[in-house]
Amino acid sequence: MSLAVLAYCVAPAAAQQSIQTAFSYNLADEAPAAAAPAEEPAATSSCGCAEEPACGCEASCGCEASCGCDSGCCSCGCDDSWGCCLGDCCLGDAWTLDSCIDPCDCCDHTIGGWVGIGYYSDNERLSADPGDLLAFLDEPDMLNFDQVWLYAEKVAEGGACSAGWGYRFDMLYGVDAQKTQAFGNNSGSWDNSWDHGFYGWAVPQAYAEVAYGDWSVKVGHFWTIIGYEVVPDTGNFFYSHAYTQYNSEPFTHTGVLGTYAASDCTTLYAGWTLGWDTGFDQFDGGSNWLGGISHTFGDNVTVTYASTAGNFGYRSAGGSGYSQSVVAVADVSCKLQYVLQSDWVTTDGFYNDPNFDAQDYGINQYLFYTLNDCWKLGGRIEWWKSNTVTGEATSFYELTGGVNYKPHANVTIRPEIRYNWSPTDLFSTTTGAPFNNTVFAIDGVFTF
């Protein structure tokens, strides 16, 4: 086994939380849309393009009583009655913990969270053994509390002539915690030793924020802006994660990140952090740039470029590196959405081996179709190539299909089937487990 392989096997792979500027699937912060008037004239969007008229459950949208809309709350959308064939989708308002703590909405602070519980038949690759920390789904054939999450926040809202302040604090308990801890730290610092068995605790965010006009600045411990998929269950369509998300992207950073809304269509990001996956600590001189740009073309396409450059700390064994992600989100129609993501990472060191030059490449494609507010279909296909698993450049693939079903405004159920394969048997030679496998997984997420 090469030093690179050994380093890979003794350290959890780095990962991320994406910016998701165009595809917001955050169930925790999701609010029901206001009912649209029966007829709404076309308007000009802030990006200078004509918007489509709002379309709810009016007869003009092909949603007459004959397709189950006589109750007035069937969510069909556009001129497609497929969703109505599944019956009415009357979710109503989600219950929130904050509504009990502050029923009169007098406070600008918010407290909330979610609980994610799931089952999967086999290890999500690149994991081969139970609890090896080489993928999120590494405790197969049992029911796991993946994420028991609680957060508190105040959104920083600054006006044109005044500043506003805010903060965010997140705490996580579950089998996902050990993969989300600041494992880029020196041993025993921040949260990277709060474990007991396969479970543990993590504090993935703890930052203060100031906003003024079009500017906002975060200082502290926060999610990365790299990539598309995220750590929280409430931010992803799929239960399982892409290879790129877990292996080629950071999860968190500690440092400073500024955001500037240059226009209604363009947002700029620039900051400095103490390497990858650190929590108020600096490993091996970690110091890197973090930034990017997001731009919306018309009303239907958003492209986000994000990068890190410099010393990634633990991830690059104190050496220099560069990474980038490009995410394009296209609304093909009001129900169909396509996402294309590419990742590239190159470093002069890799975890415990400062002499190993690591190279990762990846392309992910997603397709989502919304039937109605209760049902959504999705598919993902991925190619990921890296020399960090077997010691030489090897391609890995996965194909995933799944459904999101919301039986209640606070509950989402996510069944999926995933097939992993690789054209070589180097993974089997290295780990003793076949890479090719089919995994059935299902989880439920309850938000509050």
Show the helix and strand layout.
Elements: H1 3-10, H2 97-101, E1 109-120, E2 144-154, E3 163-174, H3 177-180, E4 195-196, E5 199-212, E6 215-223, H4 243-247, E7 252-261, E8 266-273, E9 287-297, E10 301-311, E11 320-331, E12 336-347, E13 358-370, E14 375-386, E15 394-408, E16 411-421, H5 426-431, E17 437-447
Antiparallel strand pairs: 1-2, 1-17, 2-3, 3-5, 4-5, 5-6, 6-7, 7-8, 8-9, 9-10, 10-11, 11-12, 12-13, 13-14, 14-15, 15-16, 16-17
The CATH homologous superfamily name equals Porin
Characterize the overall form.
Answer: globular
Mean pLDDT: 86
Please state the CA-atom Rg, rounded to the nearest Å: 22 Å
Identify the CATH architecture: Beta Barrel
The largest sheet has its strands arranged as 1-2-3-5-6-7-8-9-10-11-12-13-14-15-16-17
β-strand amount: 35-45%
Offer a quick outline of the entry.
The chain is mainly β. The chain is 6% helix and 42% strand.
Protein model, in words:
The protein is mainly beta and 448 residues long. It has helices at residues 3-10, 97-101, 177-180, 243-247, 426-431, and strands at residues 109-120, 144-154, 163-174, 195-196, 199-212, 215-223, 252-261, 266-273, 287-297, 301-311, 320-331, 336-347, 358-370, 375-386, 394-408, 411-421, 437-447. It starts with a helix and ends with a strand. The longest helix is centred in the N-terminal third of the chain and has 8 residues, at 3-10. It has one domain (3-32, 106-447): Beta Barrel (Porin). The radius of gyration is 22 Å and the shape is globular. Strands 1-2-3-5-6-7-8-9-10-11-12-13-14-15-16-17 form a 16-stranded antiparallel β-barrel.
